[in-house]
Amino acid sequence: MSHATRTKMVPLPTDVIIPERDIGKQPVLDIRNLGIDFGGLTAVDSFTLAIGPTEIAGLIGPNGAGKTTIFNLLTNVYQPTRGSILLRGIDTKGMSTAQVNRLGIARTFQNIRLFGGMSVLDNVKVGLHNSIKCSFASSLLHTPGYYKAEKKARERCLELLDFMGMADMAQLRADSLPYGAQRRLEIVRALATNPAIILLDEPAAGMNPSETAELMEQIVRIRDTFEIAVMLIEHDMNLVMGVCEGIAVVNYGKIIAKGTPEQICNDPVVIEAYLGKKGAAAHAAEG
Which of 219, 217, 213, 227 is nearest to 199 (CA)? Predict the structure, then answer.
């Protein structure tokens, strides 16, 4: 599969880069000097990054580098020890995870977290909690307003499932799906929250090459169709280099490099810490 068409990346006055098409637009995420300590251990330190509102960004690094901790900070699972996170220009300090989700950030997890005993359709309905307008009394009494909201929710769920090629699975139990389909269902549920940015934590984990190639196409379609940003943690370098426009590399909780895929592939610090000479050469050849 050929690499996705990328826009030119341009530097901002700070040391961050965003896609050229996002110039003049407020970054969906503006992260400044973010850090967190657990006891006496610094897990993340001086993490600074901006992500354009339609950017596909990558976060890579060795196991234990702090990548998932960063996602937990961005979604307020953890409160940072220092630094700030602006989501669509709003400081998320002190917010709950649910409040941050309503503000526009959604995520999937490295370990799939679906409601296995519920149908595929009902799993997606859970994601619609931000947009369903129906009072508790209406739900309890099954008023006409309840049925109208239920019909609208069902239609929206089926639209999102169809977008990911899963409409025919709507009535199946989530835990009966093949692994790759469960991964896609997590993405659909995240999209149902109507995010401005979706964080994907190792979305290709456990997928075969065919499923990974399809996922690459779907990530680009998500960005283009919903006009949102995507940020992903991933060890599959073919996927990262194929779809990401800007990439940040972390090691021991700190950014060691930021740039385009081409710049990252040729950065000696990244090659030494993460890619390895053979891996870098292979990606350069593919490009």
Answer: 219
